[in-house]
């Protein structure tokens, strides 16, 4: 994933992997940093429910490698799960970052 350091040095860089930081309540914070200035960015947060949805989406995605499976159905389920995950991630992020703003 290509991005650029919009809150730091403004340079473009490639995100190769996320670093996982464990927060309380079983929440993981997935982040990456700018290789030029080490500015940290949060990719997303996930809790137990999001982890479960991500497992489900991986199972659905495995169906694409089975030529006898119903790919149309798998496609629909994948889109549904993706939308659900995005919604949960957005809500969790708002909850965590919204709360931090009041510190
Ligand atoms: Zn930077």
How would you summarize what this structure contains?
With 103 residues, this protein is of the alpha+beta class. The protein has helices at 48-62, 71-100, and strands at 2-4, 12-14, 19-22, 28-33, 40-46.
Describe this structure in words.
A hairpin with a 6-residue loop joins strand 4 and strand 5. The protein contains two helices and five strands, in the order βββββαα. The strands form two sheets. The chain has a three-stranded antiparallel sheet. By secondary structure, it is an alpha+beta fold. The chain has two domains: 45 residues, no CATH class; 57 residues. The mean pLDDT is 94. Helices cover 44% and strands 22% of the residues. The site of zinc ion (ZN) has 8 residues, from loops.
Please describe the structure with a list of short key phrases separated by commas or semicolons.
5 strands, about 20% strand, three-stranded antiparallel sheet, alpha+beta, about 100 residues, globular, two-stranded antiparallel ribbon
What is the topological layout?
Blueprint: E1 2-4, E2 12-14, E3 19-22, E4 28-33, E5 40-46, H1 48-62, H2 71-100
Antiparallel strand pairs: 1-2, 3-4, 4-5
Helix pairs in contact: 1-2
Bound molecules: zinc ion.
Zinc ion binds next to loops.
Give helix and strand order, one letter per element, not per position.
Answer: EEEEEHH
How far from one another are the termini?
A: 32 Å
Spatial sequence of strands, sheet with the most strands: 3-4-5
Mean pLDDT: 94
| Proportion of helical residues | 40-55%
| Estimated structural class | alpha+beta
Could you say which small molecules are bound to this protein?
zinc ion
* Strand content bin: 15-25%
Number of helices: 2
**Largest sheet: number of strands, sense, barrel closure:** 3 strands, antiparallel
Q: In angstroms, what is the radius of gyration?
A: 17 Å
Number of domains: 2
